Amino acid sequence: MRPFDGRRILLVVSGGIAAYKSVILLRVLRAAGAEVEVLMTSAAERFVGPVTFEALSGRPVHTDLWTNPLAHIELGRNSDLAIVAPATADLLSAMAHGRADDLASATLLAAGCPVLACPAMNVRMWENPATCRNVALLTGDGIRLVGPAHGELAEGETGIGRMAEPEEIMVEAGRILETDSVLTGRKVVITAGPTREAIDPVRFIGNRSSGRMGFELAASAWRRGAEVVCIHGPVSVPLPHGPRTVEVEDAVSMLNALRCEIAGTSVLCMAAAVSDFQVEQPSDEKIKKDELRGGSFALELVSGPDLLLETAEHRAAAGVFTLGFALETTDGVSNATAKLERKSMNLVALNQAGAQDAGFEVETNRITLIDPSGSVEELPLLSKREVADRLLDRIEDRLRDGD
């Protein structure tokens, strides 16, 4: 799985109750294709046995500075990334002050690879001025941190100190490992999810979009180093970790948010399923069923704003590379091609409505990609994460070519 496949990760586990999460992190890293070496402090062994990590990594676990006197040099030199999870207050202090009195601190001091630390400790330890100074020193030295999070702590207290979840750590690690992207440093704006148009204060016109496709695009662009803004409608799936998110309700509010964010944008991906229709006169009060004549009533619908058309002039003037989506039931390629030209897009991704394994409310998608030259590329059925990577790969190719 990009960008972990074949990459060498050093997982440093120190002595905290959050060490159990490091077991899950190891499984996720291995599932993504990474080769993982595990180094444990003596305190970590009191929480999780080395045999657990050895079984999951398929490699001997490193625990002692003297068993292999060169291990502290070799481990850091042979790794693409070191992840310290959990990073206790003690180990953060050792890292900040350059101590090398055990295998973990010596290895991290000698490591030439990037280091991602995942702090985990009691809230009072995290907020102690000494820890704050150590964290400032580490970040100033280029050490990346993810977390800690707010929540319940092991001691029955609540506050900041929980180790970040493995999924969040994977996202941060991916951003470190994903190098040489054309998108690095560029602003990328992505729309995602459905919009809702009010009928009355409790009812609306909407669609089945889950937001997954747009969120995967946002996550992939952020992993590649972009400054990502994700404008999304009402969703129930988790928001992507990393990108800045802007929540909106209806098509007009999404258009307004888009106009606010489009300045300085290099790439725009319009993955939201924006409602084509609005109720002409929404009711200010809930429409009562027993007030309906004959048990029915008519809704007067009008066209909603077309976000691509409304922004076409600005996009053209600013040279914003635009990817749009087309959901069609018949004549898919011809209809999507016409949409591509009419709405001034650089690429259009065609979905066929009605496919059970693609499109709305599923985790897979099947895309046909069309560009202004008439090139048609059919992608196989893929997870939406894989589709997002393929689409951004194509965008990067065209940006390199100067499109």
List keywords for this structure.
403 residues; alpha/beta; 2 domains; Rossmann fold; five-stranded parallel beta sheet; eight-stranded mixed beta sheet
Explain what the structure shows.
- It is elongated and about 80 Å long.
- 34% of the residues lie in helices and 23% in strands.
- It contains 13 helices and 21 strands.
- The longest helix is centred in the last third of the chain and has 17 residues, at 384-400.
- Helix 1 packs across helix 8 (166-177), helix 4 packs across helix 7 (129-140) and helix 9 crosses helix 13.
- An 8-stranded mixed β-sheet has the order 12-11-8-13-16-17-19-20, with helices on both faces.
- The protein has helices at residues 19-31, 50-57, 71-77, 89-96, 103-110, 123-127, 129-140, 166-177, 212-223, 251-261, 307-318, 332-342, 384-400, and strands spanning 8-13, 35-40, 81-87, 115-119, 144-145, 149-152, 158-162, 187-192, 197-198, 204-205, 227-232, 244-247, 265-270, 277-279, 301-303, 321-328, 347-352, 364-365, 368-370, 376-378, 382-383.
- Strand 19 and strand 20 (376-378) form a beta hairpin.
- The mean pLDDT is 91.
- With 403 residues, it is of the alpha/beta class.
- The protein folds into 2 domains: 8-177, Flavin prenyltransferase-like (Rossmann fold); 187-400, Rossmann fold.
Fold-level CATH name of the largest domain:
Rossmann fold
How many angstroms does the end-to-end distance come to? 28 Å
Radius of gyration: 25 Å
> What coarse outline follows from CA principal-axis ratios?
elongated
For the record, the CATH class of the largest domain is Alpha Beta
CATH architecture of the largest domain: 3-Layer(aba) Sandwich
SS element count, helices: 13
**How many domains comprise the coordinates?**
2
- Beta-strand proportion: 15-25%
Which strand order do you get reading across the main beta sheet? 12-11-8-13-16-17-19-20
Class computed from helices, strands and strand pairing = alpha/beta
Into which percent range does the helicity of residues fall? Answer: 25-40%
**CATH superfamily label of the largest domain:** CoaB-like
Main sheet?
8 strands, mixed
Assembly state of the chains shown: single chain
Point out poorly predicted stretches: none
Average pLDDT level? 91
Based on DSSP secondary structure assignment, what is the total number of beta strands?
21
